[in-house]
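Feature request disguised as a bug: please show the residue count (443) next to Cytochrome P450 in the output. Example input:
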Amino acid sequence: MDARILCTLCLQLLAGALVAFSKSSVCQLIGGTFFLSSAMHWTVVLINRYLNVSADSTYLEGNAIPVIITDNKKCKEMLGGDRTHTGAGIPGIQEKLAARARPNFRLRLAFGIDNAFTTDDEVWYREFKKRVQCSLKAISQERWHILARDARSLATSKLQRSASSPLVPLVQSITLRITLEAFFPKNPVRLRDQHIETVAGEINRVWMVSKDDPRSESWRCQLKLRDALAELIPDAKVFEPRENPLNIILPAYETMWRVVLRCFVEVWQRHVEWQGAFEDLLRNPGASQAPGEGHNEARAFHAVKEAFRLYPPTRRVHRHYADPSTAKRVWEAADIETCHRSAEVWGPDPLVFNPGRWANAHANLGASLLAFGAGDFTCPAKAGFGYRMAAILVAALLDAVGQGPWKLDMGNDEEELAEGVPMLSGRDAYVQAMLVRSEEECR
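Example output, currently without the count:
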């Protein structure tokens, strides 16, 4: 039997035995709860060591903080898995997967997932990628029309309910609903807002907490998130890591809503000349053409691409390299945001939201967009789904605010909307931003 499989079985049996023993009368005499807590802690430590990963970045012997990579070429190599520190040339797929899985182990702990970002199993990696590709291909032209219609209806109905609306929860809610409809077909209008808001809010909270202290969050403790997820997807297998719906929701929703929010604000507040392109896209959102072939569709896609450039959803991508022969370990981070704002690559105005740069973009410019990864690890959504989904969501929001005299109150971040200055890109930015209906409309 393979050593990895044998070790896994032993650890599972150990965990089961600990639980059983904790319920025995003998264990109760020595303090069952304390014993179980301590024993399970050391079981997790053994699992971490066995997997050669750790929830704590200080396990790295080479460097306890990441080496930041800002060179575009080196970042592309790193994202595609072609960067190595073993001296053995371009690494194989197993080494590539392991380097990516190690820094993402916290996501396995916090969300109970096992997907292409967290696994070092080549067979499962290819199977998961195939599943995603099949799901994307299954979205027909008719389905895109339905998604656009529902996004428009959701945005309009939510803004009609009151005279003001927090911007971040609004964008999160609409993005999550349409993501669920795309990957887990169910009419999003019938989904209860409280469950949508709970899932969206808990994903954001757990994500941030797990970054600060990976060991502080455990999937089995996420009762609030699991219960809300079960309401949205009744047949969800939340305790089966490879079947957990968050395998899809995290990369599809979590990376999307922040790009949608910033693209929406840029086009609505600072670049109104691009609004017409989104209006046309909303009327004809189907994918009968290749992404961006129609004139106005192309303009909408240019704006979305520019949002992915200026505001990459993942600002830094981490890799943990390990050389079994020397036990040397290196932690590196590709600074995608810096690469996307380099004047050397993007011209004299890299900090300006300028969709026009994509109108006559040469192939090298497109290849420099790293928001969807690179090489062997290029996200399947880059082929069109990612741009089209973002464009439809931005179009729905623009349509909703266009139906009434709404204004944007950015709260303490008001000065950040100055012309030529990028919007804040932090995950917790604009939490005070509000959409406010003008007083004239409320009378």
